[in-house]
Amino acid sequence: MERILYTAAAVACALALATVATGARTATPGVTATEVVIGGTIPVTGVASAYRTVGLGAAAYFRYVNAHGGVNHRKIHYLIKDDQYDPGQTMERTRELVEQDHVFAIFNSLGTEHNLATRPYLNAIKVPQLFVASGATTWGKDYKQWSWTIGYQPNYRAEGTIYGRYVAKTAPKSRIGVLYQNDDYGKDLLAGLRNGLGKKGKLIVSTQGYNVDDPNDQSQIAKLKSAKVNTLMLFSTPKFTIQAYAYARQLGWRPKVYVNAVSSASNIMGLATVGTSKKQTDGTISIVFLKDPTDPRWANDRGIKLYRTIMKHFKGTNPSDVYNVYGMSVAHTFVEALKKAGKNPTRDSIMRAATHLNIHNDPFLLPGIVVRTTASDRFPLDQSRLERYHNGRWRSFGGLFRVR
Amino acid sequence: MRRALGIGAWLLTVAAGLGVFLVLPHLVSDFHSRDLARAGVFFIAIVGLNLLTGYTGQISLGHGALMAIGGYTTAALVVHEHWRDVWTIPLAGIAAGIVGFIIGIPALRLSGLYLALATFGFAVAIPSLLKKFSGLTGGTQGLRFLESAPLQVTGLTGKVTIFGHTMTQNHFLYYLTWSIGIVGFALAWLIVRGRLGRVFRSVRDSEIAAVSSGVNLAATKTLAFALSGVYAGVAGALLAIQDEIVNPLTYTFLLSILVLVGAVVGGLGSLPGLVLGALFVQYLPKISTHVSGRSGVRDFVYGAAIIVVMILLPTGAGGFLRRVARPLTTWLYTRP
Q1: Residue A99 in contact with partner chain B when CB distance is under 8 A
Q2: d(CA A158, CA A122)
């Protein structure tokens, strides 16, 4: 008799606990009747502060959406935390977002090492890590282990592959030299280049790495020149890319240049041109998937017009900075996913929506590019075009590549 | 009578300090105690640097790199050898102490600016070195505890039970860091008060006079570097435990500068102000971000605040505290 009583009491206790637990679960953190709170880390200051507009552009777009009624009558409240590009601080600030600000999801956090650092934590506590601002392949590839994480932009490996294939096809006698950032980002691009060159891998005659906290890349450029390189791959971030052009000019060296998408924004190419000469940057090749706000081709485009309207009300950033457009595009995708996540979005439903995207109308992407994901295809953006820099602006050529 | 009062006042100050230490996490949000724990990391490193720079007169711009030695020792033991994270702290301290001893050797020949440059070179070189031996250090990706060795992380479930008392992980990190900080502080105080402290100060004030009084200059300088290294190593280990990762980007030379700023603001050659130095380093970036989100403004506020502090408090917070307390201490220690 006593035992039965104990058992009954134990079951009752367990049930009570379970109700409490489910009761707590029905209220999704960060979602109220009027608001959805999301957040992410951006290097607002520090060595990589040039990327801060990736966050600010997204914030500007959310403000526009909020002014037009939000999503399901909820305003999107996007918290940007500065991690100064230090993964240790990314960890701290991400914990702050989750534990103190109780965000619904982590969104658009920037940097490869930085997102790698927070990924185990966010997956363990099942907080969505949405649209990571990094082109590492792992975000799309390793979804079985890290199901709460998804990337956004075309991945670096695929980009390198495009350059490799293009060189192998159009200039099979090149002497290729590579300047790369000595981390996952640079090495991914380099691996892609080797992959794209295939049997022509011998064309690479010199590879020179630099560290992101190095003051400059002068010695690397000198070594590449002395290796008689005539085709220079710049797998480097904006500062080092501009320096590379400048040091090449000082050496009187004008190789054919390929510059990766991270550094190919018009404003950066403009700086590189001003710092050197028109001839130095002319003929540079890169890939493109965003509409460039400085390109006269888009002057009357619906998307870029919208972009300009939004930027007019958003002070503090330079409207010709293409990273703003990137930020708006990723914010646009988040809004679409949130719409699909149901009237009362949960962390499960936003993940389901983010992995079942099919967006044809993103006004900030090149015409024809579709943001598409499925449960087993976690690369939202995998299309781009080649472009050539001529007379101070980019012109795209060839068709849309689907890159993997 | 006054002597008894003096001891009483002293005990009261210590008790009040301990009281604040115990109660503080319960006055702020749970997460905030984690930020306070991070300030504790700076506190430990600053106490160590103060022994070296404030008391022995040897400038070091390389303490961020010594913290890296500590942090990576902890990370390597946790990830590769599956040690529980907190048990690696002593070894991290010893490892950084040894490295501190070694970088103390140039100090035997260099002094002032030249020594500062030599240690600065060490601080600049360490992040690149950490990327080289990627089998051990994880290269540019660094090491991630939660991914490679989650079971070794104390408080993985969010709760920690010690001596039958359960607390959140954030509170645990706060108490762990500041307990070690207080013990380290007490040890530093004992060292400074004792024979060794007098030897340190004699080297700082005049090397020639120190040598002619029988002080072994080489031993003293390298010992100060080693001791200071132990503090930095322990701080680095605690930083790694809090972040649950190590990465070369955390240990750039800016970290060394931050520790030095904290020591100068806290007051070189005094101990009580160092808590304020640590809080300054931890919270100033946040406060200046609140002033304006624009990056230029933030840097400006940061720089301006340091200049203002140096103009108003040329001897740092420690000197300020001494000045405020002077009427009391004079009264207490003067015979009527």
Answers
A1: yes
A2: 27
Contacts of B243 in chain A (CB under 8 A): 87-88, 91-92, 117
Cβ contact (<8 Å) for B243 and A92?
A: yes
Give the residue ranges of DSSP H helices in A27-137: 52-67, 87-95, 112-124
Minimal Cβ distance to A182: which of B140, B150, B246: B140
The closest CB to that of A96, out of B31, B244, B246, belongs to: B31
- Nearest residue to B267 via CA among B224, B322, B326: B322
Pairwise CA distance, residues A362 & A127, whole Å: 26
Phi-psi region of A370 (alpha: psi -120 to 50; beta: other; left: phi over 0): beta
Q: For B7-56, how does the pLDDT look when each residue is reduced to its tens digit (9 = 90+)?
A: 888 889 889 889 989 989 889 888 899 999 999 999 999 999 999 999 99
Which architecture does CATH list for A35-154+298-373? Answer: 3-Layer(aba) Sandwich (3.40)
Instruction: Spell out which residues of chain B touch residue A184, defining contact as CB-CB under 8 Å.
Output: 140-141
User: Is the pLDDT reported for residue A1 higher than 60?
Assistant: no
Tell me: pLDDT of B206 over 50. Answer: yes
Does residue A231 contact residue A258 with C-beta atoms inside 8 Å?
Answer: yes
Q: Do residues B63 and B45 make contact, with C-beta atoms less than 8 angstroms apart?
A: yes
| Chain A / chain B CB contacts < 8 angstroms | 89
Q: What's domain A156-288+386-402's architecture? A: 3-Layer(aba) Sandwich (3.40)
pLDDT of A133 higher than 50: yes
pLDDT, tens only, A313-356: 887 778 888 899 999 999 999 999 999 999 999 999 999 999 99
Spatial distance between the Cα atoms of B97 and B172, rounded to a whole number of angstroms: 26
CA A223 – CA B18 distance, rounded (Å): 59
Q: Looking only at Cα atoms, what is the longest distance across chain A? A: 96
- Closest residue on chain A to B249 (Cα): A86
* Interface residue ranges in chain B relative to chain A, Cβ cutoff 8 Å: 29-32, 34-35, 38, 127-128, 131, 139-142, 144, 146-147, 150, 170, 239, 242-247, 249-250, 252, 285, 289, 293-295, 298-299
Question: Are both A35-154+298-373 and A156-288+386-402 of the same fold?
Answer: yes
Shortest Cα distance, chain B CAs vs residue A142, angstroms:
14
At B245 the three-state DSSP class reads strand
Using CA atoms, how far apart are residues A384 and A160, in angstroms rounded to an integer? 12
E-strand stretches of A60-188: 75-82, 105-107, 129-132, 149-151, 176-181
For residue A400, give the 3-state DSSP assignment: strand
Do B146 and A213 make contact, defined as CB atoms within 8 angstroms? Answer: no
For residue A234, give Cα distances in angstroms to A187, A246, A378, A386.
12, 13, 27, 15
| The token pair that represents A250 in the structure block | 């000082």
Closest by CA to B73, choosing from B189, B238, B206, is: B238
State the average pLDDT for chain B.
88
Classify residue A99 by its DSSP letter: I
- Domain-wise residue ranges, chain A: 35-154+298-373, 156-288+386-402
H-only helix segments in A276-380: 278-281, 302-312, 322-340, 347-354
Chain B touched by A85 (CB under 8 Å): yes
